[in-house]
C-alpha cells in the first residue's frame, strides 16, 4: 500500500474545512463517529425542505413521497450487505439498539438457568451489558473468550468455551479499540456445527470493509449510521427472515400491528413488527445516502486507503520513544490505540487538541479490555475516508510536542 491507494475526498466534508485552534483540523476519531459528507447533509435537508411527513398510511402526496424515500433505504441496505431479502432490514437507533433487540426478543426467551452466552474479551460495552442483563434475569451465564497479547482472539480458547450449554454467540467484527479483525467466518463455522446462532457486532466493520452477509453466514448483524458517514440516531439490524418472523416484537406501539383490539393484537410481519412508533425518518434517509456514498467510492478502495494510512502511521509512530501500541494483530483495521510513557492519555489528548488534532482518550467503552492490558486508558487515533498523510504528520509532530511539554 502506498500513496497511489489514497483517496482524495476531504473536500466532500464541510466540517473539515474549518481551522481548529488556528491549525488544519486533523480529525482522527472516526471510530467514535464519522463526519458527514455534503451529500448526506443535503439528503436530510431535502427531506425536511421538500417532502417531509409521517410515513405509512398517508394518502396525500408528501406522506407517499417520504414513505417511498424511507422504504427505498431498505433496498440500499440490502445492496450494501448483499442481504437476500430487504424484509430482513430493520431500522433501529444504532448498533446498541440492534444488540438489545436481539438479546430481548430472540435470545432471552431461549434461556434457562445454566445456559451460556459466549462473547469475547474485546467487546464494546454495547455487546456486553445487554447479555449480562438477560443472563441475570434468566439465571444464564455470560462466558468470555480471552484474547492474546497482540489483540487477536485466542481461537483455541474460544473453541474450548463452546459447549452444549452455549445458546448464543455474539462477537465484534472489528474491535473499536484494537482494530483487530475477528475471523467471524471461522467462529460461525464452529457455531454452525452445534447449531448455535451468532450475532456479529458490525459497528466497526460496516464503515471500513466490504461486508457480504451471505458469505459471512451470521444470523444477525448490526451497525450504526453515524459511523458509516450518516446521521446519529439511525442504524440497521439485519436478521435472517426465519428468525425475524419467529421472534416476538421488541416494543409495542403504532406502525407494528396488523389489527389491535383490547382483547388481542396481531402483529405486522417483519420488518414493521420491529419498528414501533414514528421512526427517525430523515435519519434513515441520511443513512441510505451515507451507504450510497461509500458504495460510490467503493469499499475495497476505502479499505485500501485506510490500510495505507494505518501502515504509514504505524511506521511514523515507531519513531516516538516510549510509545506503545496496544493491538498489533496481523491484518488489523485502521485504529491505533497507544500509551505514551510518562504521559496520561487525557493530557496527551488535550495537548494534541491545541494542534488541531482530534483523538479519543479513555477506555473507549471497553473497560474489560483496558483491564486485560493493564492500562486505565489509551489514546486512540482512528481513520476514515477523509484522512491523509498530513493528518498523520500532524499527529506525530503533536506527540513530539507532548513529549517536550511533559519532559
Ligand atoms: N460496538 C462497537 C464495536 C462500537 O464501536 C460501537 C460504537 N462505539 C458500538 C458497538 C455501539 O454503537 P452505538 O453507540 O452507535 O449504538
Radius of gyration: 22 Å
Provide the low-confidence segments as ranges: none
Number of strands: 17
On the 0-100 scale, what is the average pLDDT? 97
Q: What is the number of helices?
A: 13
Describe the model:
InterPro entries: Aminotrans_V_dom, Cys_dSase_SufS, PyrdxlP-dep_Trfase, PyrdxlP-dep_Trfase_major, PyrdxlP-dep_Trfase_small. The chain is 38% helix and 17% strand. It is α/β, with parallel strands linked by helices and 407 residues long. It has a 7-stranded mixed β-sheet with strand order 4-10-9-8-7-5-6, with helices on both faces. It has a 4-stranded antiparallel β-sheet with strand order 13-14-17-16, with helices on one face. The protein has a two-stranded antiparallel ribbon with strand order 1-2. The longest helix is centred in the first third of the chain and has 21 residues, at 61-81. The mean pLDDT is 97. It binds 4'-deoxy-4'-aminopyridoxal-5'-phosphate. Residues 94-96, 124, 126-127, 172, 176, 201, 203-204, 224, 226, 365 line the site of 4'-deoxy-4'-aminopyridoxal-5'-phosphate.
Write the layout of secondary structure elements.
Layout: E1 19-20, E2 23-24, E3 26-27, H1 38-51, H2 61-81, E4 89-92, H3 95-107, E5 116-120, H4 129-138, E6 141-145, H5 155-160, E7 166-172, H6 184-193, E8 198-201, H7 213-216, E9 220-224, E10 235-239, H8 241-246, E11 257-260, E12 265-267, H9 281-297, H10 299-317, E13 323-326, E14 335-340, H11 345-354, E15 357-358, E16 360-362, H12 367-373, E17 378-382, H13 389-406
Parallel strand pairs: 3-15, 5-6, 5-7, 7-8, 8-9
Antiparallel strand pairs: 1-2, 4-10, 9-10, 11-12, 13-14, 14-17, 16-17
Helix pairs in contact: 1-9, 2-9, 10-13, 11-13
Bound molecules: 4'-deoxy-4'-aminopyridoxal-5'-phosphate.
Amino acid at each position: 500500500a502506498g500513496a497511489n491507494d489514497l483517496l482524495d475526498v476531504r473536500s466532500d466534508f464541510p466540517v473539515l474545512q474549518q481551522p481548529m485552534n488556528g491549525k488544519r483540523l486533523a480529525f482522527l476519531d472516526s471510530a467514535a463517529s464519522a463526519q458527514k459528507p455534503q451529500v448526506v447533509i443535503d439528503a436530510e435537508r431535502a427531506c425536511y425542505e421538500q417532502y417531509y411527513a409521517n410515513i405509512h398510511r398517508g394518502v396525500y402526496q408528501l406522506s407517499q413521497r417520504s414513505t417511498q424515500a424511507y422504504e427505498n433505504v431498505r433496498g440500499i441496505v440490502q445492496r450494501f450487505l448483499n442481504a437476500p431479502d430487504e424484509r430482513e432490514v430493520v431500522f433501529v437507533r444504532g448498533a446498541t439498539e440492534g444488540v438489545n433487540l436481539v438479546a430481548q426478543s430472540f435470545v432471552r426467551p431461549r434461556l434457562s438457568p445454566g445456559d451460556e452466552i459466549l462473547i469475547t474479551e474485546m467487546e464494546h460495552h454495547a455487546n456486553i451489558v445487554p447479555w449480562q442483563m438477560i443472563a441475570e434475569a434468566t439465571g444464564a451465564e455470560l462466558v468470555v473468550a480471552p484474547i492474546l497479547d497482540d489483540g487477536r482472539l485466542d481461537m483455541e480458547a474460544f473453541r474450548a468455551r463452546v459447549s452444549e450449554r452455549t445458546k448464543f454467540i455474539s462477537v465484534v467484527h472489528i474491535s473499536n479499540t484494537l482494530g483487530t479483525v475477528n475471523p467471524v467466518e471461522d467462529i460461525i463455522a464452529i457455531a454452525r456445527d452445534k447449531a448455535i446462532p451468532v450475532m456479529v457486532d458490525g459497528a466497526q466493520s460496516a464503515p471500513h470493509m466490504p461486508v457480504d452477509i451471505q458469505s459471512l453466514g451470521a444470523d444477525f448483524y448490526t451497525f450504526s449510521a453515524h459511523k458509516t458517514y450518516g446521521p446519529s440516531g439511525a442504524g440497521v439490524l439485519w436478521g435472517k427472515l426465519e428468525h425475524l418472523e419467529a421472534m416476538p416484537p421488541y416494543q409495542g406501539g403504532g406502525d407494528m400491528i396488523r389489527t389491535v383490539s383490547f382483547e388481542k393484537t396481531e402483529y405486522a410481519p417483519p420488518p414493521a413488527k420491529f419498528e414501533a412508533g414514528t421512526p427517525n425518518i430523515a435519519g434513515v434517509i441520511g443513512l441510505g445516502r451515507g451507504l450510497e456514498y461509500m458504495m460510490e467510492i467503493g469499499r475495497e478502495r476505502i479499505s485500501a486507503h485506510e490500510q495505507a494510512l494505518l501502515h504509514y502511521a504505524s511506521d511514523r509512530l515507531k519513531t516516538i520513544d516510549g510509545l506503545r501500541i496496544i493491538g498489533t494483530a496481523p491484518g488489523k483495521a485502521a485504529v491505533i490505540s497507544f500509551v505514551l510513557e510518562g504521559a496520561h492519555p487525557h493530557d496527551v489528548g488535550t495537548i494534541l487538541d491545541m494542534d488541531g488534532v482530534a483523538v479519543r482518550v479513555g477506555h473507549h467503552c471497553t473497560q474489560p479490555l483496558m483491564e486485560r492490558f493493564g492500562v486505565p486508558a489509551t489514546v486512540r487515533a482512528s481513520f476514515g475516508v477523509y484522512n491523509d498523510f498530513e493528518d498523520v504528520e500532524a499527529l506525530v509532530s503533536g506527540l513530539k510536542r507532548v513529549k517536550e511539554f511533559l519532559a
